Amino acid sequence: MSFTLFISDLHLAAERPRIVDQFFQFVSGPLRGAQALYVLGDLFEYWVGDDDLDDPLNNSVAQAFAAVAATGVAVHFMHGNRDLLVGHEFAARSSAQLLGDPYLTDLHGTPTLLMHGDTLCTDDVEYQKFRAYARHPQNQARFLAQPVAARHAEMEALRVRSESAKLGKTAEIMDVNVPAVEQALRQAGYPRLIHGHTHRPGRHVHRVDGHACERWVLGDWYENGSYLRCDASGCSSIAL
Q1: Residue 211 has pLDDT above 90, yes or no
Q2: Cβ atoms of residues 46 and 154 within 8 Å
Q3: Model-level pTM?
Q4: Which of 10, 132, 159, 190 is most buried, by the most CB atoms less than 10 A from its CB?
């Protein structure tokens, strides 16, 4: 039976070698034989631009995807909030297809909406303001015009501020807003929904206009990795 795998929120970084090793074990193990892989954002802790592709970690990840794509596994990549600057050069070196967010697909016979998930966290007003700022073309152009080293320094500073800001927010604020989830499901025709971002893995069922809509939340890889496996019979979360 053909199957598809989903991952998100790996936050790969050289200073986290155990998780990096786990990623390569996943690519060489569970991913082999899959019909497709969907990476739903935040594959990297941060991404400063495709001109940093020769960084050893970045290059090895791209090569790993290209190698598995050569075996027939379709690799799809959706931007997260940490790696929103991943571009066509990375996609080409990875033999991956870049996806928009949201993205509706037929998954083994079931309409399925794919998202990173951050747009569903509408209660986190400060984050949504920053999200809009970070995605503005002029702000991205300003950032990319800097030397690579300066971009790394700015990203490191942003990471520190982000972690500090989280300490002052409740778990509820950083989770999805249920009406936002229901609206996304309604607009897409009541599909299944798969997303990451919140780091709260699990399965939920939303009743929307009389439709029972399944929502799967992918886990992060801060402690141990996991992935979602879907086939014609349904989905299941699997720990590595």
Answers
A1: yes
A2: no
A3: 0.96
A4: 10
